[in-house]
Design goal:
Strand order of the largest sheet: 1-2
Order of helices and strands: EEHHHEEH
Oligomer: single chain
Shape: elongated
Strand content: 5-15%
Structural class: mainly alpha
Mean pLDDT: 90
Radius of gyration: 18 Å
Amino acid sequence: MADAPYRLSLRIYLPNGLRLGPGKIGLLQAVAAQGSISAAARAQRISYKRAWDLLEEMNRLLEAPVIETMQGGKTGGGARLTATGIALLAHYQAVLDAAEDKAGTALQAIAALCRLETAPS
């Protein structure tokens, strides 16, 4: 999709009320990359409280937590994805890849209908 003239965004609505989309998935990816909730929040340009609330929502609505935190001190604390968090990222990416594979031709046709320049205002 890197060379594609479009970007696909996907939101999944689950029966228990959990909604998974680019925001929560991006936050999980940032926690994995940064090793802390506060650094992940900064990377996603959201408040620490917002990041914590989103992670807690996922932890509450999934059968197992998506992250685990380590207390600060000499080791510095931090956060990392659990096996559930890692699996959630992989499954979300698989759904996104499958959607793009299945709809690729139609998405390219939609992109071809778009103007490449914007009209003067």
